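Two quick folds needed for the group meeting slides. Do the first one here.
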Amino acid sequence: MGQTLINILLFVVMLSVIISIHEFGHFIVAKMNHVYVYEFSIGMGPLLFQKKGKETVYSIRAIPIGGYCAMAGEDDKENVQEVYKNDAVIPDERTLNHIPWYRQIAIMLAGPVMNFLLAWIIFISLYASLGYRIDPAPAYINTVSPGSPAEAAGLMSGDKILRLTYEDGSFIEPATFTAMVEENMFHKDETVVYTVERGGATVDCKVTPVYDETQDRYLIGISSPEPTVVEIKGMEVIRTANRYFAENAGLIFKVLGKLLRGKGMENLSGPIGIYTATAQEIQYGFISFLALVGVLSLNIGIMNLLPIPIFDGGRILIALIEAILRKPLSEKVKNAIMSASLGLILLLMVVVTFNDISRLFR
């Protein structure tokens, strides 16, 4: 029970920090561009604490998973001012939708950029404290489990994996064992042709994975060689953090690309899945938990750049369209776009919640 409470507390703190950092980015750049900010809130829901600044109300609210930066021009002026009991006369040039388009984009970009900065600082701190990095093992087969699908297909210890060809005709030529595992996530129960090099000859082996209930995943029964541990210090720490940042960002974009083609929906997770991952990483220690915070911050930054109007990326897209048209879109069009994007997000939430619950029952 005690560990569960710690897990919940750290999960809440993690999401609160990531989202507050994001909203703080919007807040700072909005202020720099003289946009009127009604409220900057850490948390959502019922009010716990509030302090009125010169213009902005600073709040802490009861539900710590969330936060927001309420700027003039985001919503109907009269309704917003009524909510905030604010009777200030706000000139158009201080509202978000009346400043130049490039300033709007700067404000929208600031949130994701702060998430990227948080992730980058965390990755540098982690590698600086560890003093080493782990380079993934090459795409060789170390061992083959007796009685496994890999053994039945003819794969052998020492085989160099040259290519994996999937049922849909796609293929990869993995440079590392990790790259192969990542791609196989999108082809869990498919028969895959492993093209391997053995004794100077090329051999094709068809392998169909089997589901392992204890590990809740499909396996073929092979293991990788040991990865390489490399000591790092100085500028190599920053270079390693940059590479880790780029690799994780690349994997996120790869997953998004797969989703657009209808693959990998079952891999998506929502709050329940994130909590489960948090609880698992806490078991491995603070370093693993902090790495998860960095990866999630990077994920949230990239997701917010998607060109869906309810996200920052969608607002950036609308600002660019208005800049090209040289006139604002009508409120009717904006409301229709927002409603459609909200419907899409709600559908996505249903999918990820179903996935999370299914994993819990498994």
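Then this one, please, same format:
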Amino acid sequence: MRRIGTAVVVAGLMAGVTCPSWAFDLSPKGTRFDRDAVKAWAPSWLDGILSKLAEKGLPKFKQSVHEEITHRAYECNFEGPGICGNPDAEYAAPYVIAGVRWNDDPPFQLNSDQAQGTSCKTTYSDGRPMTIRFITQPKCWGELFLSAEKQIKSNPDKTFNVANQAALPLRSHFGDLQFIHSMASSDNEDPVETRSKILSWAEFTWGVVRGSYKLDTWLKDIDLPVMKQYFSSSGWRVQELFTLGDPSLRTYLEDIAFGSLLHMVEDSFAAGHVDRMEPANGTQCAGSSHRAPGPIREFHSYTKQSTSKHADADSRDAFINNRLTPDVVDVGRTLVALRKAKAEWLEVGAYLSCVYDLAPTVRKASAGGF
């Protein structure tokens, strides 16, 4: 990986470098644990400064759109972003917000070979592995992403997947885990395959929400296609997947998993990720009173998309200007209600199958108009 000079990284981050495969922006603010960890340990004076800058909106962490959508799903109804867009607004629990952030910024560790040529710190002084997140090592994080984007754009066949043991953020933004952003992993991917992976992840997260899978559940033992295919060789438990390096989250595992599910569903309403038809007035999901969103015409893939065009669909303006009925907030409120009612997966799965209904003219994945 090409080493990026300190001045270039800082300048790029301060300019708001856009990282791909987001639907809607995130606030730069991490969990309280993240912020306390940065105060207690900063790998260098520069990383300490960048961690402070991270709280001001770098690089793609600038508008709290995902947090706003989630708080609105929990009945925040104030106009403007001031209250509902505050990550600490306390409509959604802070650990649900942490789960919403997980899809874009999952914690990860690197070995020394993977970190070669970067500023990434992989171990503490006593040899313990160090967990990396944007808030804790933003320079490292930015280097990895800028390099990954350059690779994927120059070589569309390049991928980051379970086979090459790439870090989770690279897999989720550029590789085989893009389904957690409601995207296809490559051009020409069959929409039936993309949808199947999305619904399988949804079933897994709902299993965590329901308590069927706990911190000590081994991912290799979870009998779901998406877990078998993408996580069975990880050597992880649910704890490592969702709460690596952050023991403050472990008491709230169900909230983290629910937030991850909300993020994936929210992403499916961003035009850079999914091409949806407008909902037909009054149409309901089969066998329920829930209103049906517009069916999906295409799951997009990022490989050949323009980063700037993709970014335009991530903004708060894009969210506000696409408030159809039912919209992303309505769907979030339905999922919140289903969780409160302790609904079984049979009911939740039927609803999400409706949310991800495919149009008769559905196309294979492409960059779309982006």
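Slide caption for protein two: Confidence is low (pLDDT under 50) at residues 1-22, 56-60.
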